[in-house]
Amino acid sequence: MGHAHTTSARSVEDHAVRIDEMITRVWSARPPETVPLTDALGRVTHADIEALIDVPNFRNSQMDGYAVDAESVADVPVTLPVTGVLAAGDAGDERHRSGTARKIMTGAPVPEGADAVIPVEDTEVDGDGVRILGSRRSGEYVREQGSDIAAGSVVVPAGTTLGPRHLGALTAVGRSDVTVRPRLRVAVIATGAELVEAGSALGPGQLYDSNGLTLASSVVADGAVVTFRGRSTDTADEFSAMLSEAAENADVIITSGGVSMGDFEVVRDVLGPRGGTFTHVAMQPGGPQGWTDLDGTPVISFPGNPVSTLVSYLVFARPAIRRLSGLPDAGTTERIADETVRSLPGRRQFLRGRLTETGVVVSSGPGSHLVVSMAAADVLVDVPADTVEVPAGNSVRVWPL
Ligand code: AMP
Ligand code: MG
């Protein structure tokens, strides 16, 4: 174990709290939305939702068989005259007469006066009538109105993430739409004069913009929506115009690149004078970080190295976005270091690791440009700022990627 270094950098925890607050505040100002149930999968209910009708909404048969009154079948075998047949979908408004039977299908209304259904397996055709071989008590194989839920009762409580079973239940109780929490709307802007769109030819000094899709797909995986995606050069005018466009229908803007100490740091240059804070967080990768309240729209600025970008997202943005989306926290766990893990002093390090049967091993070098190597990792290995070595056999905290 090494020693803590004094540093003026902000702690990861402080920065995470700041970003979480910014995201939560704008999201909380959004009103709930009413959406058709057909679009509601994965949405989170805003309030308790009550049944509009009883379910079942009429007394019906649980079996294919014969509707009877239990008294008439107390002593079996007994033969009863059959007065007709009831199918699912029939109105079933004809009253049952004691001592008779009505052929009935599953789901068909049980006529008033009948109080049991004899399954067809327990009967034999007997001329024009039916021979009942097994007796049934009152209520057997009859689904009572409201036995699943009564109108006015709560079907799904507030805060439920709607799955297929909830959508089915809400449909059954007479709903066709539902009021849900808003989804965080996120704009993603990648900056860098060197960036080229996927699929186009690369010129000298150019590379593909991978951060844009990494960030946009992370946002979607965490239950929010991407309302804008842009790629800006390092020109202030272009980036400024893109910010304005992005802010039109986004709650939060995430940028990548342009926040370090170089000559062409467009994000810092444009947002610094507009109230942005650009600082160093005591972590590696992902040290340079920025945040701005851009006329009410939070802009969260990550450094451009692809590993730094993703680590920044996972550490600072994912927890809040998942919570607001109603998704469970991605969660960290403790694993045994199969091999000794080495780290720099003074900064919390997030190394890329691969899970093994017994624990975890560090899987790629420290370079924050190693975008492809990162794809082979399963987790981030989180080494505290004051730790320079985790000996093999000790445990380390890991974050899922
Ligand atoms: P920056 O933070 O703008 O100084 O960028 C740091 C490094 O990350 C540079 O090598 C960039 O080329 C690279 N980089 C920046 N943005 C992206 C991006 N969107 N996709 C891939 N690499 C990027
Ligand atoms: Mg750049």
Fold blueprint:
Blueprint: H1 12-28, E1 33-36, E2 49-50, E3 60-61, E4 65-68, E5 78-86, E6 101-104, E7 116-119, E8 123-126, E9 129-132, E10 142-143, E11 154-156, H2 164-172, E12 177-180, E13 185-191, E14 195-196, E15 207-208, H3 211-221, E16 225-232, H4 236-247, E17 252-256, H5 266-271, E18 277-280, E19 283-284, E20 288-294, E21 297-302, H6 306-325, E22 333-336, E23 341-342, E24 348-355, E25 360-362, H7 371-375, E26 379-383, E27 389-390, E28 395-400
Parallel strand pairs: 5-6, 13-16, 13-17, 14-15, 17-21, 19-24
Antiparallel strand pairs: 1-12, 2-11, 3-10, 4-6, 4-7, 5-9, 8-9, 18-20, 20-21, 22-28, 23-27, 24-25, 24-26, 26-28
Helix pairs in contact: 1-6, 3-6
Magnesium ion (MG) is lined by residues 191-192, 257-258, 304.
Explain this structure:
This protein has 401 residues and is α+β, with helices and mostly antiparallel strands. The chain has seven helices and 28 strands. Strands 7-4-6-5-9-8 form a six-stranded mixed beta sheet, with no helix packed on it. A six-stranded mixed beta sheet has the order 16-13-17-21-20-18, sandwiched between helices. Strands 19, 22, 24, 25, 26 and 28 form a six-stranded mixed beta sheet that branches. Strand 20 (288-294) and strand 21 (297-302) form a beta hairpin. Adenosine monophosphate (AMP) is lined by residues 190, 192, 194-195, 207, 209-212, 256-258, 260, 262, 303-306, 369. Pathway: Cofactor biosynthesis; molybdopterin biosynthesis.
